[in-house]
Amino acid sequence: MDSPDPPAPRAAPKNPTRRPRPRVTGRLILYTALLWIMLRWFEHHQIYAPTRTHDASPEELGRPFEDLTLTTEDGLHLHAWYFPAAGQSPRAQFAALVCHGNGGNISHRLPLASALLDTGIAVLLFDYRGYGRSEGRPDEAGTYIDAQTAWQWLVQRGHPPQAILAVGESLGGAIASHLATQKPVAALILMGAFTSIPDLGSELYPWLPVRSLVRTRYATRDHLTRVHVPVLILHSRQDELVRFHHAEANFAAAHPPKWLRELRGSHNDSLADTEQIRAAVDELIRFLQTTPASRSP
Where are the beta strands (DSSP E) in the chain? Predict the structure, then answer.
């Protein structure tokens, strides 16, 4: 009896490595692009929370003021309010350039302006691009340009660079710190300022790889290492958003002379501690009046 023929060997597949279909590849590219756009949108809207509507008027302070339009080097128009020093104040040459936080607009900083004016100095409130009545859309490089535009206006108005106080609140702390590395100022004042966006973001979203994802830096602490003027840091231990250790880290990075003073209240309420703000700023100005001009960029 003949033995059965052995089974024929199976033919090897012509293409052992299957290439992904073009349609699948296209979907992957599309989904990756959409994810990237969503991440950038989320980052932007977590950092910037501008409002266009004014909730208060500068007339409420009962002080003279000027309604201004500043023009940036890239052609945008920024809205600002300038409050000259009262009467014949011996501190009239001093001016506070206020870089506000990430939310609202200058109409929400009138109590802070009032506290600064009470020390006998002038005050300039300005809105970054995309805030209030200012044109454009905010981003890190743009806000740095905006602060330098405000600084230039004060100098043209007659305030000596060595009499300009760069004041930064929260996000504005990074902007004011950067300004102090680029332009000569008398001193730097930080209120509720974080060390950097990656530092803050990793604390607020510990389950996300924030440091690998964010492109925006606002590195206050790094800027401070290059600032060579007196630094006053105001921060509340009750700040639930920007914890007090940010103030301590910023203070450690700053060069002397420097001061760390405590405010009261939560992150958004600490600016209402106008009594402590007024006292601390008054102390700083007295120091500046009795000390030779500090180094500047």
Answer: 49-50, 66-71, 77-83, 95-99, 103-104, 122-126, 164-169, 187-191, 231-236, 258-263
Q: Which helix (H) or strand (E) segment is 155 a member of?
A: helix 140-157
Give the model confidence (pLDDT) of 94-120 as tens digits: 999 999 999 999 999 999 999 999 999
Q: Are 237 and 248 in contact (CB under 8 A)?
A: no
Q: Phi first, then psi: what are they for 245, rounded to 5°?
A: -65, -20
Which amino acid makes up residue 113? A
What are the residue boundaries of the structural domains of the chain, listed by start? 44-289
Phi/psi at 122 (5° precision): -85, 160
pLDDT in tens, 17-49: 555 556 667 666 665 555 556 666 667 888 999
Distance of CA 27 to the CA centre of its chain: 37
CATH code 3.40.50.1820 for 44-289: yes
